[in-house]
Amino acid sequence: MRVGSALLELARGANARSIFVVGIGRDVGKTTALRAIYDAAYDADTSIGLASCGIASSRKPRLWLKPRTVFVTARDALPRTPAAEIVRLSPLRTAGSTLLYARVVAAGQYELAGPPTASGVRKVVDDLGELSELAIIDGAVDRVAALAGADGAIVVACGAAAAKTMSEAVDEVTSLVARLSVAPFDPREPSIQFDGALTASSAAALIAARESRQIVVCDPTQIALSGKAASRALAQLRVRCRRPLRVIAATIASMAPDRSFEPRAFARAVADATGLPTFDVYASTRAA
Q1: Of 104, 71, 101, the residue nearest 87 (C-alpha)
Q2: Ramachandran area for residue 13 (φ above 0: left; ψ -120 to 50: alpha; else beta)
Q3: Which of 39-48, 49-58, 237-246 has the lowest mean pLDDT?
Q4: Are residues 224 and 268 in the same domain?
Q5: Exposure of 193 by Cβ count < 10 A (0-12 exposed, 13-18 middle, 19+ buried)?
Q6: DSSP 184
């Protein structure tokens, strides 16, 4: 099967005009998943915009991009060759350079970039929405708030590189999916409104007080918890948000330099724990 086509169909089923690929850590297959979605969208004759946001500048991905693709990059990273047409300059900056939007004229390797702030990412998503039919962003989890309350979808990547054991990786991705999938709050019911982040200490105090009202944050990225602490808080508190997100799928990368997980068992465990369609982006399979 083509994993990219399956992910693209899930996004289309959610009426998404942007797809944000996030991960439980580094080297868990985010860029591979993005490339698969990009190739499928290009083959479907969809105009595409690409960016990479909230990632350290030394790790910006370089991708083989095809003609007509719009992408965001740092001004000093735009190559002289192959050819790309500058279509818009941006007041936003990444580390050490201003950003611009370019359109590929000749296929080749190009570096993606993006702003480091959530507000900047929101601006990039809006701009790519004007310049393309589908925006695909490789980004950090704490920047995914740009999609909150909007017509965007999230793909979560997990892999052996970010955990010592398979069960630890499954716990991490399950916690992340649960956090990003927090339901919208019901204004008709009693609530406690948080203007900032819900931290481990504040969650522990609410659990100890046996709080039964809705605990409302602005968006899921304001839940400053991870792993088992997040799972415990989400199980014992009615955490809700004002601007929800949509997670549509998970991907796995079972190999890492110093460890590997049995791929089919890993994919099945992630699918069972998250309830999401789960794909192995390297083996091009879906968890059965």
Answers
A1: 101
A2: alpha
A3: 49-58
A4: no
A5: exposed
A6: B
Tokens of 72: 């965001």
Q: Which two tokens stand for residue 179?
A: 């956090």
- Distance (Å, whole) CA 124 – CA 90: 9
Residue 213 has pLDDT above 80, yes or no: yes
Yes or no: say if 253 and 227 are a contact pair by the CB < 8 Å rule.
Answer: no
Same domain, 16 and 71: yes
Mean pLDDT, the chain, integer: 91
- β partners of residue 100: 73, 89
Report the C-alpha dihedral over residues 76, 77, 83, 85, rounded to 10 degrees. -60
State the Cα torsion 26-40-133-159 to the nearest 10°. -20
Of 151, 138, 172, the closest CA to residue 252 belongs to 172
What one-letter code names the amino acid at 216? V
CA gap 270, 286 in Å, rounded: 11
The pair of three-digit structure tokens given for residue 69, joined into one six-digit string: 């693709």
Q: Residue 232: how many CA atoms within 13 Å on its side-chain side?
A: 15
Per-residue pLDDT at 57: 47
Is 229 found in the same domain as 159?
Answer: no
Q: Give how far Cα 53 sits from Cα of 24, 164, 181, 196, Å.
A: 15, 27, 21, 22
Return the pLDDT at 59. Answer: 54
Alpha-carbon dihedral of residues 253, 48, 12, 248, nearest 10 degrees? Answer: 30
What single DSSP character describes residue 113?
-
Judge whether 27 and 35 are in contact, CB under 8 Å.
Answer: no
**Same domain membership, residue 231 and residue 98:** no
The CATH number covering residue 74 comes to: 3.40.50
Task: Name the domain count of the chain.
Answer: 2
